[in-house]
Design a protein that fits this description.
By secondary structure, the protein is α+β, with helices and mostly antiparallel strands. Helices cover 37% and strands 19% of the residues. The protein has 5 helices and 9 strands; from the N terminus they run H-E-E-E-H-E-E-E-E-H-H-E-E-H. It has a 5-stranded antiparallel beta sheet, with no helix packed on it. Strands 4-9-8-7 form a 4-stranded mixed beta sheet. Strand 2 and strand 3 (33-36) form a beta hairpin. The longest helix has 20 residues, at 41-60. It is globular, with a radius of gyration of 16 Å. The relative contact order is 0.18.
Length: 179
Amino acid sequence: MRTFAELRRSERLHHAHDTELGAEYWMADGGPRVRVFEHVGAEGMAAYVTLHEYAHLWIHSDYDHDAWLVLDIDEPIEVGVDFVVMPRRIGNTLDSFVREEDRAEPPPRLANLRALIPKLVAAAVTPADRWVAALVASRLAGPDIHTIFVWAEQRFYLQDLAPSREELEAWRAVAPPQG
């Protein structure tokens, strides 16, 4: 496993912004995003990784509504000692379809996404499923910059659940044991 210092020596990174979990960087030329977990340590980073892995599998396990045809949740590409590499999608943010100025024309799939979310929340059975469903619903309820519509695929990608410290702690309390 690489450290962020090693990654930084091998890749051209641009500092995107700081979050309460740590800094976020973008790899040059449209490459993936890199989250550094300098404020929450290894336990916080592990919770972030398992949350995204679980949420990705949760969407793909929905056979009743075929949610993955409308929405996917990205999981890590690489997990380092103190960083996580996540995909960076090219498309329109969910925010771009609802903002007042310079609004993008929403795709018909947006209505499918809005109709899907309450069904997923209602179908959640386990505590972890209910928790993830509520988090995903909260992210998709408003203008979210982490949800990208990829036109070529006609699919939304939640490329980062962007959990707070408190949400990571709450996730750790309901997450299934890792084995």
